[in-house]
């Protein structure tokens, strides 16, 4: 569906150099702090900025050779894009009909009613949640095969986030060939939605893992200095020294449960893994 290999982009002191793959039928999450390179990578994929090297393949084609018909198979939500605030939804319907031959007007109008979005109100008067819902509805209303979503749930309350995530699940259930690439700094969204996760920091992919594996096999060991000195560190990915000892990230929880039963161990979460992968030290 989407393959990125060694894509590079230099912005002053910031350097992007990333590779990842989005497979058909999968929801892939991209995790990273603000300024880590998520949006730069998304804009590179979409051709909104030029790159300094590397390869981007979409639907089996070099992204530079995509036709207008190919691009209709993309549904996009970017945090800094949207329709003019002086348009209403009734105006947007006409635009979408003209842009996308596969636009499903019946589906779109039904979803507007489901999410109680007013058709005659100017977008500038929409709440943050209403604008977010509309962006996602537009992205999924023309039979897109790949959704590229940059922080679609940012700034939303829990109820609105859940509604949007349910909408994305429904979109995937309708066709097993569809895929989603989604970025978010809200780990609970990604844990419940994504099949696999990429972690990006300072423009580099520092981890790729299946979500189920991360949640089941990753753990944080809490050890004293004496325990750390005696610890088999073969499966330690990162460690961080604290006031009372060390926190050690591993992707082999069972090994340490069996061989060090007295060591304190915390189950891995996206937040703990992200924190230690970014702020921890390598051995």
The total count of helices amounts to 11
Return the structural class.
alpha/beta
Question: Unreliable segments (pLDDT under 50, ≥5 consecutive)?
Answer: none
Shape: elongated
Number of structural units classed as domains:
2
Instruction: Please tell me how large the radius of gyration is.
Output: 21 Å
Q: What percent of the residues sit in helical stretches (DSSP H or I)?
A: 25-40%
| Strand element count | 14
Terminal CA distance: 36 Å
SSE string: EEEHEEHEHHHEHEHEEHEHEEHEH
DSSP strand content = 25-35%
Mean pLDDT: 90
Largest sheet: 6 strands, mixed
Identify the CATH homologous superfamily of the largest domain. P-loop containing nucleotide triphosphate hydrolases
Could you name the CATH class of the largest domain? Answer: Alpha Beta
CATH architecture verdict of the largest domain: 3-Layer(aba) Sandwich
CATH topology-level fold name of the largest domain = Rossmann fold
What order do the strands of the largest sheet run in, or round the barrel if closed? 6-7-8-3-9-10
Ordered list of secondary-structure elements with their pairings:
Layout: E1 2-11, E2 14-22, E3 27-31, H1 38-45, E4 53-58, E5 61-62, H2 68-71, E6 74-77, H3 89-99, H4 105-114, H5 128-140, E7 146-150, H6 158-173, E8 179-183, H7 187-193, E9 196-201, E10 204-210, H8 211-217, E11 219-223, H9 225-230, E12 236-242, E13 245-250, H10 253-259, E14 264-267, H11 270-279
Parallel strand pairs: 3-8, 3-9, 6-7, 7-8
Antiparallel strand pairs: 1-2, 1-4, 4-5, 9-10, 11-13, 11-14, 12-13
Helix pairs in contact: 5-6
């Amino acid at each position: 569906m989407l393959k990125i290999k060694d894509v590079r982009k230099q912005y002053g002191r910031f350097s992007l150099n990333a590779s990842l793959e989005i497979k058909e039928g999968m929801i892939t999450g991209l995790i990273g702090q603000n300024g880590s390179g998520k949006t730069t990578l998304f804009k590179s994929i979409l051709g909104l900025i030029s790159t300094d090297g590397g390869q981007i393949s979409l639907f089996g084609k070099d992204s530079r050779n995509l036709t207008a018909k190919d691009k209709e198979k993309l549904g996009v939500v970017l945090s800094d894009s949207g329709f003019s605030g002086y348009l209403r939804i009734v105006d947007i319907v006409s635009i979408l009909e003209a842009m996308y031959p596969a636009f499903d007007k019946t589906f779109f109008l039904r979803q507007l009613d489901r999410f109680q979005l007013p058709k005659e109100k100017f977008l500038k008067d929409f709440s943050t949640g209403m604008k977010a819902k509309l962006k996602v509805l537009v992205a999924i209303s023309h039979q897109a095969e790949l959704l590229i979503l940059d922080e679609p749930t940012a700034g939303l309350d829990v109820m609105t986030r859940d509604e949007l995530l349910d909408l994305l699940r429904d979109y995937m259930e309708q066709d097993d060939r569809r895929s989603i690439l989604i970025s978010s700094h809200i780990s609970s969204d990604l844990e419940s939605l994504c099949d696999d996760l990429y972690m990006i920091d300072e423009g580099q992919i520092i981890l790729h893992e299946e979500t189920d594996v991360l949640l089941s096999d990753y753990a944080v060991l809490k050890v004293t200095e004496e325990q750390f000195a005696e610890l088999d560190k073969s499966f330690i990915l990162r460690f961080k020294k604290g006031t009372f000892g060390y926190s050690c990230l591993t992707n082999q929880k069972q090994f340490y449960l069996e061989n060090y039963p007295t060591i304190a161990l915390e189950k891995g979460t996206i937040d703990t893994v992200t924190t230690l992968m970014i702020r921890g030290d390598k051995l």
